[in-house]
């Protein structure tokens, strides 16, 4: 050992060697800087770094952003659903909450917060997930969100071919088992959809509609779900458009809720006030999920581009002046009718499957014909005033009775008075005693009938007065004309 120690160079010798090597390295570096162009130096440095990484770093990272091209990244969505189920002792944080105001005791829901790390095992592989969210500088650009999945380089191909399809399938199974539905609204500030639990009690059984119409809608929905291959064979996007039109209070929103409950589809309620331009509209609509309902309510009030372009400009301006100011300017002028139609029935309509698009309006005559044609609004459903059949459904729902001797009087009044199902339901809710509620409804209908008759009498009297005034005006004009003619005759005679 002593002999070995004696053979080792001294510290001063090592220091001198180090100084010589450093000086030589600095000299070579200076020569390279002078002789080799900067781009070439960067290229050499990059290749050297890659070479070192290949031999000394065995990890590989997949980056999964929330958007892929112009649509939502389906792998990102699958990870959002799957990863909360894999939270274990090794996880350092977890986002929890509940968005069900109807049931405060409902089980909490899990989500992944930024900078959270989750470890998952799959077929002998140890996989490490992390979630990141980067805030953008522009307020109208959404935050950049992405997952990072780290694995061994030798497992890269296995992750792509087996693991990603696995988590996609598990996520879809989880979504299919969800008992509750969600209603989503678009948050312009955060540039993303926000959801809440949707628990509307409306069903086709409770709707105050004609039985034939309800059956027609259910049959149409059933046919839509079962005709996936038909849509593919004819080269059309798998979607269905409905237009619900009629006076306010006739049950348009209740029908939407009934369709959602019947189909078990989530609802995306789009308010055009939150849309800035066509590009923003495309991004918003392509971020909706499959098997969902896109709802655009009161489209005649939400946007000027939906109006009938065939009407004279003066008539359109007169109609706009009759509406409230906020509705008239709610739609961003940068959004065009073609931008909306392109998603409903254009090339962008193919970005998604099994979607139902529902428009509602109180004034169908104000809509542009381009919005009304088949392929955009395939089914037009008139939601009219309450009929005797609708009243019987309401009486069964609210009072628990299917017949009464007062029904005949109510039927006669409903045939002569325009009253909405909402107004009838409001009267039936006055009392739980059927006799009291029915008599109150009869009194309400008689009051409305008398008011209508009074208005008609006033209109008739007004019309008579206007006719009389016009008649008197013509008489006066005739007399003035005759006097003028007589004066002219006298002047001619004197001359």
Defining traits:
495 residues; alpha/beta; 3 domains; 7-stranded mixed beta sheet; 4-stranded antiparallel beta sheet; 18 helices; 15 strands; 49% helix
Description:
It is a single chain. The chain is an alpha/beta fold and 495 residues long. It has three domains: 59-179, no CATH class; 195-382, Rossmann fold (3-Layer(aba) Sandwich), CATH 3.40.50; 388-470, no CATH class. The protein has helices at 2-7, 11-35, 38-56, 74-82, 156-176, 211-226, 228-234, 252-263, 278-286, 299-302, 313-321, 325-328, 337-345, 369-372, 388-398, 407-416, 421-428, 434-494; strands spanning 59-65, 67-68, 71-72, 95-97, 109-111, 117-122, 125-134, 144-152, 181-187, 192-198, 239-245, 266-269, 292-296, 355-361, 379-382. The strands form four sheets. It has a seven-stranded mixed beta sheet with strand order 10-9-12-13-14-11-15. A four-stranded antiparallel beta sheet has the order 1-8-7-6, covered by helices on one side. A two-stranded antiparallel sheet has the order 2-3. A hairpin with a 2-residue loop joins strand 2 and strand 3. Helix 4 (74-82) packs across helix 5, helix 15 (388-398) runs parallel beside helix 17 and helix 16 runs parallel beside helix 18. The longest helix is centred in the C-terminal third of the chain and has 61 residues, at 434-494. It is elongated and about 135 Å long. The termini are far apart. Residues 319-332 and 491-495 have low confidence and may be disordered.
SSE topology:
Layout lengths: L1 H6 L3 H25 L2 H19 L2 E7 L1 E2 L2 E2 L1 H9 L12 E3 L11 E3 L5 E6 L2 E10 L9 E9 L3 H21 L4 E7 L4 E7 L12 H16 L1 H7 L4 E7 L6 H12 L2 E4 L8 H9 L5 E5 L2 H4 L10 H9 L3 H4 L8 H9 L9 E7 L7 H4 L6 E4 L5 H11 L8 H10 L4 H8 L5 H61 L1
Parallel strand pairs: 9-12, 11-14, 11-15, 12-13, 13-14
Antiparallel strand pairs: 1-8, 2-3, 4-5, 6-7, 7-8, 9-10
């Amino acid at each position: 050992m002593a002999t070995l120690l004696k053979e080792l160079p001294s510290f001063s010798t090592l220091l001198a060697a180090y100084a010589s090597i450093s000086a030589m390295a600095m000299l070579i570096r200076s020569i390279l800087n002078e002789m080799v162009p900067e781009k070439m130096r960067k290229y050499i440095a990059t290749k050297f770094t890659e070479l070192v990484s290949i031999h000394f770093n065995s990890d590989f990272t997949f980056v999964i952003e929330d958007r892929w091209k112009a649509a939502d990244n389906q792998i990102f969505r699958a990870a959002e659903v799957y990863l909360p189920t894999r939270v274990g002792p090794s996880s350092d944080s977890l986002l929890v909450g509940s968005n069900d105001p109807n049931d405060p005791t409902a089980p909490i829901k899990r989500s992944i917060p930024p900078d959270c790390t989750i470890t998952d095992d799959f077929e002998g592989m140890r996989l490490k997930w992390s979630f990141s969210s980067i805030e953008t500088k522009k307020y109208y650009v959404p935050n950049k969100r992405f997952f990072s999945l780290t694995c061994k380089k030798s497992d890269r191909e296995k992750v792509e071919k087996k693991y990603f399809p696995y988590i996609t399938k598990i996520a879809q199974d989880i979504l299919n088992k969800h008992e509750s539905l969600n209603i989503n609204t678009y948050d312009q500030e955060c540039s993303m959809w926000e959801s809440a639990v949707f628990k509307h009690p409306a069903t086709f059984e409770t709707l105050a509609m004609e039985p034939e119409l309800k059956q027609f809608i259910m049959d149409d929905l059933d046919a839509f779900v079962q005709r996936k291959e038909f849509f593919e064979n004819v080269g059309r996007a798998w979607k269905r458009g409905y237009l619900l039109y009629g006076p306010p209070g006739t049950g348009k929103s209740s029908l939407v809720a009934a369709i959602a409950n019947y189909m078990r589809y989530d609802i995306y309620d789009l308010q055009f006030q939150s849309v800035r331009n066509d590009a923003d509209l495309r991004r918003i609509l392509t971020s909706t999920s499959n098997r969902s309902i896109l709802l655009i309510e009161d489209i005649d009030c939400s946007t000027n581009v939906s109006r009938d372009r065939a009407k004279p400009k003066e008539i359109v301006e007169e109609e706009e002046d009759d509406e409230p100011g906020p509705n008239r300017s709610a739609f961003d002028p940068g959004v065009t009718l073609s931008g909306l139609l392109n998603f409903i029935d254009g090339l962008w309509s193919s970005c998604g499957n099994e979607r139902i698009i529902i428009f509602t309006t109180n004034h169908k005559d104000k809509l542009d014909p381009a919005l009304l044609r088949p392929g955009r609004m395939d089914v037009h459903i008139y939601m009219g005033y309450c009929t005797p059949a609708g009243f019987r459904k309401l009486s069964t729902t609210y009072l628990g009775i299917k017949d009464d001797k007062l029904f005949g009087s109510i039927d006669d009044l409903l045939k002569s008075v325009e009253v909405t199902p909402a107004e009838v339901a409001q009267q039936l809710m006055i009392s739980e005693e059927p006799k009291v509620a029915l008599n109150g409804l009869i009194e309400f209908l008689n009051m409305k009938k008398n008011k209508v008759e009074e208005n008609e009498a006033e209109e008739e009297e007004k019309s008579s007065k206007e006719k009389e005034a016009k008649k008197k005006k013509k008489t006066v004009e005739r007399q003035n004309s005759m006097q003028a003619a007589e004066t002219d005759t006298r002047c001619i005679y004197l001359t």
